[in-house]
Amino acid sequence: MTTDIHIRPATADDIALLADWACAMALETEHKRLDPDTVRRGIRSVIEQPARGRYFVAEREVAFAGRELARVPAGTLMLTYEWSDWRCGDWWWIQSVYVTPEHRRHGVFAALYRHVHGLAEAAGEAVCGLRLYVEKQNLAAQRTYASLGMGDAGYLMYEAGMPWLAKVVK
């Protein structure tokens, strides 16, 4: 287990960074350009209204030019909730996953995942499990999720976007 990764809840002080990461992730994985102001408002909404979800930030301890270790932000994920009447509990959806390029392949996502998995287990029957969606072509992410014990749930995802959405996602 990696001991140089620390997970903490995101705060309002993280909004700008989380928005930068969300925009970078959308461009990198889906080739979509997001409106940064909309993304910042969206993140602020989650942080100010915890019933919508919550963000976590992973920090790694890094030494700079022989100096003492310093914690630097390395990645994030957001949880949202979906009620299941079949199970009388919430599915926790993992969303907005991002690990900065220089911190990839160092266990950052695994640490974030284990953190939220532990929170879900501690919540008992109130949480059915963890879910996420992944682009069909993102094979590296699929391998990562499988290595952590997640499996294909067997669903396809459909959506119907509203006309105004085209203004904020290109």
UniProtKB/TrEMBL annotation:
Top-level lineage group: Bacteria
CDD domains in alphabetical order: NAT_SF (cd04301)
Residue span(s) of domain N-acetyltransferase: 5-170
Keyword Transferase found: yes
Alphabetical keyword list: Transferase
One Gene Ontology MF term: acyltransferase activity, transferring groups other than amino-acyl groups
InterPro entries: Acyl_CoA_acyltransferase, GNAT_dom
UniProt name for this protein: GNAT superfamily N-acetyltransferase
Phylogenetic placement of the source organism: Bacteria, Pseudomonadati, Pseudomonadota, Gammaproteobacteria, Lysobacterales
